Amino acid sequence: MEGAEGRQSRELKPLPLSELFLWGRVVRPHGLQGALLVEALAENPQAYDRTVFWLAFPGQGQAHPHRVTFLQLERSGQAAKSGRRWRLKLEGVTTRTQAEAFRRADLYLPRAYLPPLPEGHFYYVEAIGASVWDMEGHLRGQLVDIFPGAAYDFFIVQNEKREVFWIPAPFVKQLDRATGRLYVDAPAGLWDPDLARGRP
């Protein structure tokens, strides 16, 4: 993997979300000195260089870089129970009013930070937005989200009728990066949108 010094030397510029992966999300301002309370969403949030985050709000197609001056895991209080809450300070943000402008912003890092995976494996972030096909060659919809579960994760697929299907991860077989197709080998019953009712 590339070292932190090499990453920091890159020119900082806005990047499209297609070149980034979601690291976390701002929950709210923290205190009066411009700090933010953030929730890490990456599987291993400490595995990457975090001297710069790219920030975007829902609906935006690109994210803008912000240098980090302080980042520390929360170890006390109610917020610390999840083990995924962090205190963050961004360069130039020194008041609660300034911090308020970042509430609910998403924190991204470049996909180049992700180490390569063995053949046949893929990162979840690569699959979001992929067209979903069954093994018989039928288009089933688009992957719109992945929901973590206790035993396995669920791949949430939506078709053109806006019907939603929750497909357990063991039935997801392959992502074709060249075509943007995600292949699923699921029993016919799982393509019943009524099974999505009552899901969280």
Largest sheet properties: 6 strands, antiparallel, barrel
- How many discrete structural domains? 2
Would you report the number of β strands? 13
What is the helix content? under 10%
* Class computed from helices, strands and strand pairing: mainly beta
Strand proportion: 35-45%
**How is the CATH topology of the largest domain named?**
Elongation Factor Tu (Ef-tu), domain 3
Low-confidence stretches: 1-9
- The overall pLDDT, averaged over residues, is 87
Radius of gyration: 19 Å
H/E order of the elements?
A: HEEEEEEHEHEEEEEE
CATH homologous superfamily descriptor of the largest domain: RimM
Major sheet strand order: 2-3-6-5-4-7
CATH architecture of the largest domain: Beta Barrel
Termini gap = 37 Å
Shape: elongated
- The quaternary organization reads as single chain
Put simply, the count of helices is 3
